[in-house]
Amino acid sequence: MTEATIEVRGLRKRYGPLAAVDDLSFTVRPGRVTGFVGPNGAGKSTTMRVIMGLDRPDAGQALVSGRPYAQLPVPLCEIGALLDPAACHPGRSATDHLRWLAHTAGLPERRIAEVLTAVGLTDVARRPTGGYSLGMRQRLGIAVALLGDPPVLIFDEPVNGLDPQGIRWMRGLLNSLAAEGRAVLVSSHLMRELEGVADHLVVLSRGRAIADTTVAELIESVARGRVELRTERREEALAALTALGATVAVTGDDSLTVAGLPAERVARALAERSVPHRELGPHRPSLEEAYMEISREAVEFEPADLPFPGEVAP
Ligand SMILES: Nc1ncnc2c1ncn2[C@@H]1O[C@H](COP(=O)(O)OP(=O)(O)OP(=O)(O)O)[C@@H](O)[C@H]1O
């Protein structure tokens, strides 16, 4: 049996002079949630549209379990997608919308009740969807994605507009879909939305992947042996450590992060100058911090003469 995957290879998509997606390659593997993260306009939705065969790339390709979307025999049974929560006629009920889709894909009637239960819409399933809240429309979009019981799923900003209870539900759903062995790709422009959900991350900046890594590796790559400590005599500590060639960042009234010196050397330097300190240990950046740092580095190394997505070339 073919493994459930999404393989994006050398993908490019331009809109006029703008490279919305620029030589992008990554793989979404089964049994885990892959977070697809980047700021607004980074190219996430464009990539997802190409995967779903809704946009034609200028170069490269996106394969779903080894085949382009257009060659999938019954697409609904191969890949489910939540790209637009409102893509339903407002006068139609959720049941009718799902029945029509199930019919066109040759799926059994029982799948309708099953997916309505899975997304918690059973009680309102006969009401016209025009009266649905954003959260209910989002759940209906997920019901559509799950209808064909596909092994591959993609969700574009699925928690947008959801209340805290809805967000919790969504996180549980994403984790359980991955635990069932499905390949799950979830986009967000906020790293904290993916914390505790994504096992793997593809970080996008201006159409390019700036990281394709596990969450643990990303944090480790940013920590880079840095040391943090607290001291009431921050300025003295700062001067002493800087004099030894360390790069020191002030992170609070009484806290510092030190790069370029091992923890023992930092401790010794402060002891020699009788600067009291506490909680000296390895720096553990949050996922959000790690994301901000690699995004900043990516922007700093960007060639300045290229038009960025969202800007018009002079
Ligand atoms: N149909 C289009 N015509 C012209 N430009 C487009 C089109 N679709 C997207 N773009 C541009 O391509 C770039 C990437 O957009 P895209 O929607 O893929 O980003 P995104 O990462 O999904 O952003 P967001 O988080 O805001 O959804 C943006 O600069 C956007 O303005």
From TrEMBL:
Keywords: ATP-binding, Nucleotide-binding, Transport. SMART domains: AAA (SM00382). InterPro entries: AAA+_ATPase, ABC_transporter-like_ATP-bd, ABC_transporter-like_CS, P-loop_NTPase. It comes from the Bacteria. The keyword Transport applies. This is ATP-binding cassette domain-containing protein. Belongs to the ABC transporter superfamily. PROSITE patterns: ABC_TRANSPORTER_1, ABC_TRANSPORTER_2. GO terms for molecular function: ATP binding; ATP hydrolysis activity. It comes from Streptomyces mimosae. Residues 6-231 form the ABC transporter domain. PANTHER family: ABC TRANSPORTER, ATP-BINDING PROTEIN (PTHR43335:SF4).
